[in-house]
């Protein structure tokens, strides 16, 4: 490799054709699109096509609200595939993954796994040794396959489809 970016990508387990990058405020429309499409089309086991539940879940996924998510101590990352935003992930630098959604057109392409790995590496770089998230029924098996452990239902949400999960970021030796 001839540059730092190429070297880091060579060791990042990112499948061919997928690019990972930090999001900017100029990405809020693409972020909104991915979040809403993923929730409405992929998370049916969680919302059961209940219009009230869908409205509540997607209410804060509009571009104006997303613009406010860009603040110190949090990061939003994108996975792009074929020149389009294919997945969105977010984290708090204190050790929590706040979101990870894949556009329905890109499920099974590796963008979710690549983005999860990137978020975990970012948290390691922030000094975190353990990471937490609140996952859905839809995403539960995905996280379990990637080394996460279920720790019970989410305490701050009384939603039966919300699962608290954690993962150690200590290197396997």
From TrEMBL:
<dbReference type="Pfam" id="PF13673">
    <property type="entry name" value="Acetyltransf_10"/>
</dbReference>
<dbReference type="InterPro" id="IPR050832">
    <property type="entry name" value="Bact_Acetyltransf"/>
</dbReference>
<protein>
    <submittedName>
        <fullName>GNAT family N-acetyltransferase</fullName>
    </submittedName>
</protein>
<keyword id="KW-0808">Transferase</keyword>
<dbReference type="InterPro" id="IPR016181">
    <property type="entry name" value="Acyl_CoA_acyltransferase"/>
</dbReference>
<dbReference type="InterPro" id="IPR000182">
    <property type="entry name" value="GNAT_dom"/>
</dbReference>
<feature type="domain" description="N-acetyltransferase">
    <location>
        <begin position="18"/>
        <end position="170"/>
    </location>
</feature>
<keyword id="KW-0012">Acyltransferase</keyword>
């Amino acid at each position: 490799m001839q540059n730092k970016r190429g070297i880091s990508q060579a060791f990042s387990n990112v499948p061919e054709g997928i690019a990972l990058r930090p999001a900017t405020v100029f990405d809020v429309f693409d972020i909104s699109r991915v979040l809403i499409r993923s929730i409405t089309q992929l998370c049916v086991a969680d919302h059961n096509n209940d219009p009230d539940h869908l409205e509540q879940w997607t209410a804060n996924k509009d571009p104006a609200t997303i613009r406010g998510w860009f603040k110190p101590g949090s990061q939003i990352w994108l996975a792009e595939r074929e020149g389009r935003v294919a997945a969105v992930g977010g984290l708090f630098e204190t050790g929590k993954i706040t979101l990870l959604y894949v556009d329905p057109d890109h499920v099974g392409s590796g963008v979710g796994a690549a983005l999860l790995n990137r978020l975990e590496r970012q948290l390691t770089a922030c000094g975190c040794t353990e990471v937490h998230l609140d996952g859905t029924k839809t995403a539960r098996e995905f996280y379990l396959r990637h080394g996460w452990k279920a720790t019970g239902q989410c305490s701050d949400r009384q939603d039966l489809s919300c699962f608290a999960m954690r993962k150690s970021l200590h290197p396997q030796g």
